[in-house]
């Protein structure tokens, strides 16, 4: 009986030793923290927050998320700066566009003199129309 116990102890010792080496050689250490699961990478020190979805563990690195958020913040800040520059330059330059052939077009607004000239022309035309209507009504009467 004693020989069997010694034989079992000798046979089990390499299995126990290999189990310990697997534990110490594991790259990740997983701990449950309340409702979430935290994964520690023992080699790099990176910490990931994980969620258990069915039978799979979905882990997102905290540093990756922060880097992605910072990259998005930087991109949006650059876009805001560009839009501010466009607004500032739009006030000082004439409005331009591009036609179908690729030629740049500039829209020139009429001056005050041109507007007054058009208004005078329209007023004259209106007076002539009213005079003609009066003449027609006087001829019929």
TrEMBL record:
The UniProt record lists the keyword Signal: yes
Superkingdom in the source lineage: Bacteria
Signal peptide: 1-19
Coiled coil region boundaries: 59-93
Assigned keywords, A-Z: Coiled coil, Signal
Protein name: Uncharacterized protein
